[in-house]
Amino acid sequence: MNDNFEDELRRRLRPVNAPEGFAERVMRALPERALPATVTVLPAPRRSWMRQFGMPASLAASLLAAVFLGQHSAQQRELRAQHEGLEASRELMQALRLTSQKLDIAYQAVQKPPPAGAEENRT
Amino acid sequence: MPDSLLLQARAGDAQAFAELVKAHQGSVFSIGLRMLNRRDAAEDLAQDVFLQLYRKLDSIESLQHLGFWLRRVAANLAIDWLRRVPYSATQPLDENIDAIAPETDSDPLMSRELTRLLGELAPHPRAVMLLRYQEDRDVAEIAAMLDMPVNTVKSHIKRSLTALRGRMIGARLIDCEELP
What we know:
The complex is a heterodimer of chains A (123) and B (180). Chain A has helices at 3-12, 22-29, 49-111, 116-122.
């Protein structure tokens, strides 16, 4: 029932134009708008190489040094043991040689025939 | 109108903001004019709306939201203005007829009378009628703009239509046969 009347209202109530120069007056009345806050991300201060990697590097160096020192001392111990073994072997050989010489002398002494006078004296 | 215009205005581009003002000034000014029936008050109100927009630009999400926001603020400012200022303080309607009738109006007398009758409605139904028939907004949108239930909006529209139609017939501006 109201359709025609509603159409008439729409037609009669169309928006009218704003006064001449309205937008310009609005623009002149605008306050200084604070610029949107900008967050400047400053680059992180450059840490020196020493400060950045010093601690891990020193730890790694300590670890490597410990490993090398351990290996070195183990090698030294092994060399010393080898050396001591050789020395002991040499000493043993020397002792055996001396013993062998003594036994040779003793054997020769036993095998040698007794002197003639010695037999006569016995009887 | 591209959304980029809104983004530019939000970034501080004054030219982009001026374009937004020009695109919506007619609607905002017309709401003020037909609510207040005063050209100077309507211009002040429209200017106030756009100054508020300038301050709240960052909260506007899209051009659609912008249109909603401007009409909502304009209608509510006009209702507040009518609460503060007695109706008798408004100027006679005749001084504003040129501004209120659409430029292509074939019957300015009819438009003037319609605006006068519209001005006799209470502020809230008047705002509802303007948002419905001037701005062509649906009831749900009007309810959101004016913070009122949808059924109240429907009720305002129905009663206002009946009242306006009755008064226009009474004033012999329309015939009963013309509007069955």
